[in-house]
Amino acid sequence: MKNFVFKALLTAAFLLTAGYNTAKAQQVALKTNLLYDATTTPNLGLEIGAGKKHTLQVFYGLNPWKFGHGDDQKFLKHWVVNPEYRYWFCHRFNGSFLGVHAFGGQFDAYGIKPPFGWWDELKDYRHEGWFVGGGVACGYQWILSRHWNFEASIGVGAAYIDYDKFNCGVCGKKIDDGNKWYVGPTKLALSLLYMF
Fold first, then answer.
1. What is the DSSP annotation of 89-124?
2. Of the residues 37, 66, 110, 118, which has the fewest C-beta atoms closer than 10 A?
3. Cα distance between residue 154 and residue 147, in whole Å
4. Residue 138's CB: how many other CB atoms inside 10 A?
5. How far is it, in rounded angstroms, from Cα 32 to Cα 23?
């Protein structure tokens, strides 16, 4: 199943970026989510025009870091691919939009406390696995200059998570496996875009 999810996400990313060579000026944007960067997760997105009021984008984020040592160690190592279709109410890359997004990736987490007590076990047990999901989003984009835009967006949806549970963060044997559903916010972005 992991292999299938990975291949499906790569196929979606390829299809979204396949039109890059035929895109004309002001139809392509390279972007980064500054909020995601603030969590020490480098990320990069590509958005292309697919019509007067339509765009397609794909984001990739990677967090390979561990913080602390021994029992004080914390990490949320992961990679994620996030394709999205957007409908713009005025013109693409300007003003309000609605979007439909999908996402998937893999994770390895320990020593963290998600908000609202959603998955308390991550504080005391290491979990690794994969996830896939989707949702809807809305946002707004401001033109800052000829080549720079700024965007704010938020999304909600659901994710299916499949995981293995381990006794401790660094060592320890597998003690359980399982899956769970998450329903709630799936996207929060303040993005800086460079327009080509």
1. SSBTTBEEEEEEEEEEEEEEEES---GGGTTGGGGT
2. 118
3. 23
4. 15
5. 20
pLDDT in tens, 171-184: 678 899 999 999 99
First to last CA, the chain: 38
> Among 85, 22, 92, 110, which residue's Cα sits nearest to residue 52?
92
Angstrom distance (rounded) from CA 78 to CA 16 = 22
Output the six-digit token pair for 53.
């009021």
d(CA 20, CA 46): 9
Decide: 41 and 61 in contact? Cβ < 8 Å.
yes
DSSP H or E segment with residue 7? helix 2-17
**Considering the entire predicted model, what is its pTM?**
0.82
**11 CB neighbour count, 10 Å cutoff:** 11
| 3-state SS assignment for residue 27 | coil
Residue 100 one-letter amino acid: V
CA proximity to 79, closest of 15, 139, 128: 128
Rounded Cα distance, 142 and 135, in Å: 23
Question: Taking the CB of residue 130, how many other CB atoms lie within 10 A of it?
Answer: 19
pLDDT tens, residue by residue, 68-91: 876 678 898 999 999 999 999 999
Distance CA 154, CA 46 (A): 18
Q: Could you give phi then psi for residue 52, rounded to 5 degrees?
A: -60, -35
- What would the two tokens of residue 60 be? 């990739």
